[in-house]
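We now fix the convention by which a protein and its fold are recorded. Here is one such record, which you should read through line by line:

>
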Amino acid sequence: MSLSFGVMQYAERLGLRKLGSNPARGVPRYAREPLQRFLNAAELKRLHRRLTECDDTYMVAAIRLLIHTGARSSEIATLTWGEISDSRLELKDSKTGPKSILLSRQAKAILDGLPRGADDELVFTGTKGQTANLSYFWSKFRNKAGLPDVRLHDLRHSYASIAIQNGISLDAIGRLLGHALTETTERYAHLSDDCIANAAEKLGGSIVKLMGWQNVSS
């Protein structure tokens, strides 16, 4: 529906159709389920190895910071030194407005490894001092890492997935990711259910061993 709507609008601009005659106007668009891709343990290890081998210090640091904060790529690309405190990133603006991102020990170490600039200077810049193009770097690098289908935003999804695997609640994950709406975090609810199911299986196995119950069906 979105394609036909756009084609009709374009035809109106060219004068091929009468203005306001788009028959698709007012028709609700098909709501597509957002794609979610999560890196597994083997993929994370491979990504780490390839990052270690890369000699682009700033781009590597930016990608590692995405992995360790779950931040959006735009938030890291536009990060200035003045927005970094001892324990968090205090973003002046983001997709959801001003935002605070807590920094783990690992995330702080990544930033501490970079030479400090003036408060108004970007932490990550391109070759001519402009905002770093993380998407361009990643589009090339992900193939080297054997992750051709992984988008930068999938690092954010993976952060949430790992948090759930570690028993962190959806509410806490929403706070870590800076979700303005609880509905946004609910997309990870099925992962939480899977973790609970796995926990139930592990617990059941432990009880069987403790009871000396060799045959579950007996």
User: Anything to note?
Assistant: The CA atoms of residues 5 and 116 lie 49 Å apart.
